[in-house]
C-alpha cells in the first residue's frame, strides 16, 4: 500500500485525501488546526462551487450538505452608473445549480470523516524541516497549505503570473436577515455588482454553522474608496463599513440589507494577496521533492469565484494522475506532468480572472450590456463560471464577441 502525506486541510487537500483513502491508499493528513478549531474559527473564504466541482464531490460521496445548502440557480450582473443608479441589470440561468457551504462547516466535517474512516490525522503546523524528514518515509508528499513558510518552496512562475501585487482589497461578511432580490424572489442567484473603476460587490447565499445565510463580499481597487477595511478589527465595525459602502455605491443591494446582522463573532474577513501561479515542484534541503496542490500552485483573485472550484478540479485531476501511475515512483517528471494536466484546464480560469481585474474593453462592455436584452448571452455568461474555457469562444476577442452577438440578433458580425 502506497503511503502519501498531504499537508493542509482545505478544499483540495481534504478532497484528495478522502479520494485516495477510498481507493486504498495509506494517507496521512497534517493540519495546523483541529476540526473544532476550524468550525469555531474565523470564516476563510467566499466559496461558491459550480456544477462540475460539485459533481467531483458527489462522485466521492462527499456532498454531505447538498440538501441543506441553498440552490444557486443563476448568476446576475449589475453595473452602477456614475450616479449609483443601475445602468445594467440581468440574471443568467445556470444549467446545473451552484452551492456555497461555509468552509468551516465543510472542512471540519470532512476532516472528521477522514479520521473516522481510519485516516491518520496529525494536528501540527508543518515546517520545511518536518517535510525533509517525512519525504524519506512517504512515497509522495503534497503541500496544499496555501499560506506560510511552505509556500516559499514553490517559486513564482513569471511566465504564467501577470501580476506581482494584489489587484483587489477583499472584505467579507456573513450575515443573516438579507431580503430577497426583488427581480427574482423565487430563486437564488450570485449577484455580481460592478462599480467601474472602484470595485465589485458580490452577494451570495450560503450554508453556515447557523444555517442559511448570505455573504456580502467587497472587492476594492487598492487605494480606492472600497479599500477601507485595513485596521478594522471589530466585526460590528466591519459590517457597518460594508453597509455604508453598499448604501453609497450599490443602493439597490443596500435596500435589502437594512436588517442584516452578522452570523457569528467570527463572520468577517479582510485581506489581499497577489494572484500568482507557482512552479509545482518544491525542493527540500535534503534533496526530497514535494508537489504543490490547489492554491499553493494557482492562486487566483476571487473576482470570478473560482478558488474552491479550481481546488476541487485540481484534487480531481491529481487523484486520477496518482491512480493511473500505479506503483511507479513519484519523480519530478511525474510531478511536472501531473500539474501540466491540471493546468490545461486551469489556464482558462487564470486568463479570464486576470482579464476581469482590468478595465473592461469596449467589446466586453457591449457583451455585458447586450446580455440584458439577449437571455441566451446572459445564460452563456453565467455558465462560463462553471466552464471558463468557453470564454475563449466569445469573450476575449472583439471579433468573436461581435460574431456571437450577431448570431443572436441576426446581424452580421
UniProtKB/TrEMBL annotation:
It comes from the Bacteria. Residues 146-256 form the Styrene monooxygenase StyA putative substrate binding domain. This is FAD-binding oxidoreductase.
Amino acid at each position: 500500500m502506497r503511503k502519501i502525506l498531504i499537508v493542509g486541510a482545505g478544499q483540495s487537500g481534504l478532497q484528495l485525501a478522502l479520494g485516495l483513502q477510498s481507493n486504498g491508499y495509506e494517507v496521512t493528513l497534517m493540519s495546523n488546526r483541529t476540526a473544532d478549531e476550524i468550525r469555531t474559527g474565523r470564516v476563510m473564504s467566499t466559496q461558491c462551487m459550480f456544477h462540475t466541482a460539485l459533481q467531483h464531490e458527489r462522485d466521492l460521496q462527499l456532498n454531505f450538505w447538498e440538501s441543506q445548502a441553498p440552490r444557486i440557480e443563476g448568476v446576475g450582473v449589475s453595473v452602477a452608473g456614475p450616479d449609483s443608479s443601475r445602468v445594467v441589470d440581468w440574471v443568467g440561468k445556470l444549467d446545473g445549480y451552484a452551492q456555497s457551504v461555509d468552509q468551516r462547516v465543510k472542512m471540519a466535517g470532512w476532516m472528521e470523516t477522514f479520521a473516522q474512516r481510519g485516516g491518520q490525522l496529525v494536528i501540527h503546523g508543518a515546517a520545511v524541516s518536518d517535510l525533509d524528514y517525512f519525504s524519506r518515509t512517504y512515497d509522495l508528499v503534497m503541500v496544499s497549505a496555501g499560506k506560510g513558510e511552505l509556500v516559499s518552496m514553490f517559486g513564482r512562475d513569471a511566465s504564467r503570473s501577470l501580476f506581482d501585487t494584489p489587484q483587489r482589497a477583499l472584505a467579507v461578511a456573513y450575515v443573516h436577515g438579507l431580503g430577497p432580490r426583488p427581480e427574482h424572489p423565487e430563486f437564488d442567484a450570485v449577484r455580481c455588482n460592478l462599480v467601474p473603476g472602484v470595485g465589485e460587490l458580490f452577494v451570495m447565499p450560503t450554508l453556515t454553522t447557523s444555517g442559511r445565510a448570505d455573504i456580502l463580499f467587497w472587492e476594492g481597487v487598492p487605494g480606492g474608496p472600497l479599500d477601507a477595511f485595513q485596521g478594522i478589527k471589530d466585526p460590528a465595525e466591519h459590517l457597518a463599513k460594508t453597509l455604508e459602502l453598499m448604501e453609497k455605491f450599490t443602493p439597490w443591494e443596500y435596500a435589502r440589507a437594512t436588517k442584516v446582522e452578522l452570523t457569528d463573532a467570527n463572520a468577517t474577513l479582510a485581506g489581499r494577496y497577489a494572484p500568482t501561479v507557482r512552479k509545482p515542484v518544491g525542493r527540500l534541503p535534503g534533496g526530497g521533492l514535494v508537489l504543490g496542490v490547489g492554491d499553493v500552485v494557482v492562486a487566483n483573485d476571487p473576482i470570478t469565484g473560482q478558488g474552491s472550484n479550481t481546488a476541487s478540479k485540481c484534487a480531481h485531476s491529481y487523484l486520477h494522475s496518482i491512480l493511473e501511475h500505479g506503483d511507479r515512483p513519484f519523480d519530478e517528471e511525474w510531478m511536472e506532468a501531473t500539474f501540466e494536466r491540471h493546468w490545461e484546464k486551469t489556464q482558462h480560469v487564470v486568463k479570464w480572472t486576470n482579464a476581469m481585474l482590468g478595465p473592461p474593453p469596449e467589446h466586453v462592455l457591449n457583451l455585458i450590456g447586450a446580455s440584458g436584452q439577449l437571455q441566451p448571452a446572459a445564460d452563456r455568461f453565467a455558465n462560463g463560471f462553471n466552464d471558463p474555457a468557453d470564454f475563449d469562444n466569445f469573450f476575449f476577442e472583439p471579433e468573436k464577441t461581435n460574431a456571437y452577438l450577431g448570431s443572436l440578433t441576426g446581424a452580421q458580425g
